[in-house]
Amino acid sequence: MADAVGSTSQLIKAAKTLPHRQLIVATDRGIFYKMQQAVPEKELLEAPTAGEGATCRSCAHCPWMAMNGLKAIAEGLEQGGAAHEIQVDAALREGALLPLNRMLDFAATLRA
After folding, report:
1. Which residues, listed in sequence order, are joined to residue 24 by a DSSP beta bridge?
2. Hey, which residues does 43 pair with through a beta bridge?
3. Could you write out the DSSP letters of every residue in 68-84?
4. Cα dist. 32→29, 40, 43, 70, 99 in Å?
5. Residues 49-108: tens digit of each pLDDT
6. Is residue 71 a contact partner of residue 60, using CB atoms and an 8 Å limit?
7. Phi, psi at residue 3, to the nearest 5°?
8. pLDDT attached to residue 60
9. Which of 24, 13, 28, 22 is nearest to 41 (CA)?
10. CB 59 within 8 A of CB 27
11. Is the pLDDT of residue 6 over 90?
12. Which end of the chain, N or C, is surrounded by fewer C-beta atoms within 10 Å?
């Protein structure tokens, strides 16, 4: 069971506020530098993964996460098409639809 789940900034905030001296961090290893700066007195442990292989069980070594960038995301959103299509389970899609629509609505208010 996780003590904290969230974005990079939320995980760093949790690291600051959690009383534990050791923290097991289960996310992309890119967060470790910033987190260690925020809590130099704590020991950060990389959660065990399947290793350096490119599988979805290897989050700390995720090759796809490192490939994401603003330009590629913008191109995917603007161009669409089969090359950028992602298949999502129906139940997951339904659960994600509300927050996605909220983000799109918020972005629309910024452009207005």
Report:
1. 45
2. 22
3. --HHHHHHHHHH-SGGG
4. 6, 11, 10, 22, 28
5. 665 655 565 566 666 666 778 888 888 888 888 877 878 889 988 998 998 999 899 888
6. no
7. -80, -25
8. 65
9. 22
10. yes
11. no
12. N
pLDDT of residue 44: 93
CA dist 15 and 25 (Å) reads: 9
Q: According to the 3-state scheme, what is the secondary structure of 95-112?
A: HHHHHHHHHHHHHHHHHC
> Which tokens sit at 39?
């809590």
Which residue is associated with the tokens 């590629």? 72
CA distances from 5 to 9, 16, 46, 82 (A): 11, 14, 15, 32
Instruction: Retrieve residue 88's tokens.
Output: 């999502």
Measured CA distances, 33 to 30, 46, 87 (Å)? 7, 12, 33
